[in-house]
Amino acid sequence: MKAGDAEVELKGNRRTATRRLRERWYLERLVRRYRTGWLVSVTLSFYFLQDLEKRVDDEWAGISSSLGEICTAFF
After folding, report:
1. pTM of structure
2. DSSP line for the chain
């Protein structure tokens, strides 16, 4: 084994180590993003459903009061 071969091998190991670190960093970032995205998604869904429920209740109250007015007007 020559000195040049050892240098090439060292550079190859360094590249492999750098690539592995980069892959590990990417996977950790992906997991963090997935966890955060899931949490944000659940939270937004919860608020959306609450808002939707409130709007349906408001609409139903308006419809039922309108029906009450119509019924009293005819009878």
Report:
1. 0.37
2. --HHHHHHHHHHHHHHHHHHHHHHHHHHHHHHHHHHHHHHHHHHHHHHHHHHHHHHHHHHHHHHHHHHHHHHHH-
